[in-house]
Automatic annotation (TrEMBL):
PANTHER family: PROTEIN FANTOM, RETINITIS PIGMENTOSA GTPASE REGULATOR-INTERACTING PROTEIN. GO terms for molecular function: thromboxane A2 receptor binding. This is FTM protein. The gene is Rpgrip1l. Signal peptide: none annotated. InterPro entries: C2_domain_sf, RPGRIP1_C, RPGRIP1_fam. It comes from Melanocharis versteri. Residues 4-164 form the RPGRIP1 C-terminal domain. It comes from the Eukaryota. One of its GO terms (biological process) is non-motile cilium assembly. Pfam families: RPGR1_C (PF18111). One of its GO terms (cellular component) is photoreceptor connecting cilium.
């Protein structure tokens, strides 16, 4: 659909790292953010996966970017397509550690980040379907701590935004 970006967070697997060995990290949820407009998170936090296992969220959400009601989001998408110097990582997924019930003094902690470039989806003219993307350690951006399987269907929305740019 031209007025929607669909996002699905399917599953998460971790590689051996400080995350897997950290006893205080037990439950994880995932947040997805489009620039500053929208932050959605999986309603469930799931027990941290161990040794090669994956945890399955199967969480889907839709970002509305239609002309009528979502002007700011559309303008942002235009800038993603038109401004070469804008950071390409337009969708940011954050893996967050959810403190256990009995440790309420602990804060939620961002442990890793993964990115999807909307610009790249448009350039390749291909949505991302059930693709594994790298999760980078929040304390060391060069270290990959796991894989997040996501779907991002944005191509039709981006095409329609692009058409609009041409007509402006």
């Amino acid at each position: 659909e031209v007025g929607k970006i669909r996002i699905k967070i399917t599953s998460l697997g971790l590689t051996e790292s400080r995350i897997t060995s950290d006893e205080t990290i037990q439950q994880l949820f995932v947040e997805c953010r489009l620039n500053k407009f929208l932050a959605e998170e999986t309603p469930l936090s799931l027990p941290k996966p161990t040794g090669g296992q994956r945890i399955h969220y199967n969480y889907s959400t839709v970002i509305n970017v239609d002309k009528e009601d979502n002007h700011a989001e559309r303008e942002y998408l235009k800038s993603v397509l038109l401004k070469p110097d804008l950071p390409a990582d337009s969708l940011k997924f954050t893996v967050v550690s959810d403190p256990p019930e009995d440790e309420q003094d602990l804060e939620c902690e961002d442990i890793g980040f993964a990115y999807v470039s909307l610009k790249e989806i448009f350039q390749k003219q291909r949505d991302i379907i059930e693709q594994d993307i790298d999760v980078f350690d929040s304390q060391d951006a060069s270290a990959v701590i796991g894989k997040l399987t996501v779907t991002v269907e944005a191509l039709n929305a981006l095409r329609s935004v692009h058409e609009e740019c041409k007509n402006d």
